[in-house]
Design a protein that fits this description.
5-stranded mixed beta sheet; alpha/beta; single chain
Length: 274
């Protein structure tokens, strides 16, 4: 996991765009509605937002939650990188022609770990979103990360409180033994999603969660009263290579793209066609 930490880009305030009649009537997005809740704050300039973020980061760093949660994340990432390193050593410098393409090299322990963030709310006005962002920054600091890499590199997807369809889409996009063995997901508990939904609904609307939930390992983040709303139902998920290799081959051959045509309470915006 050793990789140089990239220097952060400077913050700058951006002037808001002029309102139009059509934009004034649009329905507020889910993140905007969340920001108007009890923890919402007024808009602030760039310097004020940066100051609030630093304060949230320091509060989180000094909390009982932080050290335990970071340990959970780094242990899972260590296991994932360990299995990839073991595979690399076993194969030497040979490529797996059956599962790896020319643009998908085997990862090694010296490879940087990519971190992709989805679904974060407006951290300029939301205390919850700001704490979630602060935790990601502390996690990157702990793991000595800071680079966005090409395909084939170990990747952490940080997506707290995203819609179930987004997790399903992520699994579909990485639906192979090689890809999933490189993935760590920090987000809503997939096991809890399985328990809450009717089996028929889970398999119909979110088939990739249904197919893989028994073959992953999940570790919940610790719960403390202070961060109950921020990290409730949040777990770290990783995919042991041996479990993935033990699944039937026809499971991986089925890669139909999710469409969610008849899915109620969908929490993502579908691309309009036609």
């Amino acid at each position: 996991m050793a990789a140089g930490v990239a220097a952060p880009e400077p913050w700058s305030a951006v002037a808001p765009r002029k309102k139009t009649k059509s934009s004034a009537r649009r329905r507020p997005r889910r993140d905007e509605r969340r920001a108007r809740g009890p923890q919402a704050e007024p808009e602030a300039d760039g310097e004020a937002v940066l100051r609030r973020l630093r304060e949230a980061e320091e509060d989180l760093r000094n909390s009982d939650f932080c050290s335990s949660a970071l340990e959970t994340v780094t242990q899972c990432l260590g296991k994932q990188l360990g299995q990839l390193q073991g595979l690399t050593e076993a194969l030497g410098r040979l490529a797996l022609s059956s599962s790896l393409g020319p643009e998908e090299p085997l990862a090694t322990s010296t490879s940087p770990v990519t971190c992709v963030c989805y679904g974060l709310g407006n951290f300029a006005t939301s205390v919850t979103a700001r704490s979630q962002l602060a935790f990601m920054l502390l996690f990157l600091e702990r793991c000595q990360e800071g680079k966005r890499s090409i395909q084939g590199q170990p990747t952490v997807f940080y997506m707290p409180h995203c819609g179930t369809a987004l997790y399903n889409n992520l699994l579909w996009s990485n639906w192979s033994v090689d890809a999933l063995s490189r993935v760590v997901i920090i987000g809503n508990s997939l096991q809890c999603i399985e328990e809450r939904l009717l089996t028929k609904i889970l398999h119909k609307n979110y088939p990739y969660i249904a197919k893989i939930v028994k073959s992953l390992e999940e570790f919940p983040l610790p719960q403390t009263p202070r961060y109950t709303d921020t990290f409730n139902d949040t777990s770290v998920h990783w995919f042991p290579l041996l479990k993935l290799q033990g699944l039937p081959g026809d499971l991986w051959a089925s890669r139909e793209e999710p469409d969610y045509q008849d899915c109620e309470d969908l929490e993502i915006i579908r691309k309009q066609t036609g």
